[in-house]
Amino acid sequence: MTSTPIDANRTDSSVIDLGRPVAGDVVALILADHVRFETLLRQLRDSSADRDAVRRALATLHVAHAEAEERLVYPTLRREHAIGAHEAEHGEEEHAEGNQALLDVLELAEVSGKEFDEAVEELSKVLNHHLTEEELTILNPARSNVPADVRAELGQAFVTERNAQIDDDCGRVENVRALVARAEKSGLLDEDADEA
User: Fold this and answer.
1) Which structural domain range is residue 157 located in?
2) I want to staple 96 with a disulfide (CB 3.0 to 4.6 A). Which of 79, 181, 183, 193 is the partner?
3) What is the pTM for the complete model shown?
């Protein structure tokens, strides 16, 4: 079964559907969100789209997805010996980089022009790198090293947290700003790498 995460013809600023899964294999659920990320990024690059609505939806999905992974998925996969501390920590670093790139897009007053295009290009680069790396180094080991019943139980916990985050409007700019500040304070964001 396939579903379109957003209406490709939507031009108003009404809410974009981010999906409301209630259960499933955690790997499949995470991959479904990855498809949503790719669709939202494509929409954000489209000058005819409601880019303001898309950037807000993308921020909400990114924060909800990342928070659920960091709180539930990564620790469980570590306990199941599917991934090590390095993979979990690296995933958290990439989530922080994604939040920083999102904040750069969210804080722009205009949703067109060179500055916006450059910020979207950087966001696309950061998120696409993370999606690829996570699928290779975290989801593949989860598929092969975690029993199906554990993946299903984790899937339900993941979507419960993800959906609660969405309900709390986790993608609002103030929250993303706070997450970036927390990541900077904890050393997840390397300022020298940003300046390079």
Assistant:
1) 26-195
2) 183
3) 0.89
